Amino acid sequence: MRPFSILPDPSMMFWSERHKRAYAVLEYGLMTRAPLTVVTGEVGTGKTTLIQALLRQTDASMKVGLISNARGDRGDLLRWILNAFDVPTPPQADYVALFQTFQDFVLSEYAAARLVVLIIDEAQNLGAETLEELRMLTNINSGTDELLQMILLGQPELRDIITRPELRQFAQRVSATFHLNSFELETSRDYIRHRLVQAGGSGNEIDPAAAARIHAEAGGIPRLINKIADLALVYAAVGGARTVEAALIEELIADGLILTARKEEPVQDRLVLAARGDAKRTLP
């Protein structure tokens, strides 16, 4: 098993404190049937892996649809959504027909005692107008029962879009939100050790100095750590070395195999949980 594959793999999940909190927010959204839950983070911080882990916990009481990289104009979003739930639609259907089809689907699932959960990855690509269209879909919910839940994952600019004045109604529907920052040095070291052990190693195949150099070059982004560590293990094997040292990482850099990672601007840690009413509480 490759310890540092860049593909999302819940079985290799490293539960940093930040990832535990992000997952708690996702679970909170499902448990309370929150209409909108939002998790953001830089590319490669593990948002998709979190969702894959969450999907393993869903049961027959939920009908889950997953959309990645959705784009398009008004009406296209509904086609994306219906396709995610395998609901057939005529190519010539107009917006009203598409909306009615979706509403009928949600109501039929509710009648069967199933909650409809829509997960949208890379939601920053939707833009302000499409996000407002999503908010309108939550109007399907009525009375005391929530028929439709949405979980949005995206890059940091998604937070910027949501906090625009014209999307204040959308923001008010968001019951829980969390931002995944990049790793600190010690967390990166623990992450590297964890992946090595999970793959059957001792955890010492990459020494602490090399791990620190990987962290600095990757800017603490897990996906970039994986790419650098994977190359380092290959270089070590070719050279007959049993341990990756900092000098080998410098060799990778000198050979031009590593693109310097852009360091993330720090985002203030904030975990906001809101009940269905107006009351909110903020946790550190």
From TrEMBL:
It holds the Pfam family AAA_22. SUPFAM superfamilies: P-loop containing nucleoside triphosphate hydrolases. InterPro entries: AAA+_ATPase (IPR003593), AAA_22 (IPR049945), ExeA_AAA_ATPase_DNA-bind (IPR052026), P-loop_NTPase (IPR027417). Residues 33-177 form the AAA+ ATPase domain. One of its GO terms (molecular function) is ATP hydrolysis activity. This is ATPase. It comes from Paracoccus aestuarii.
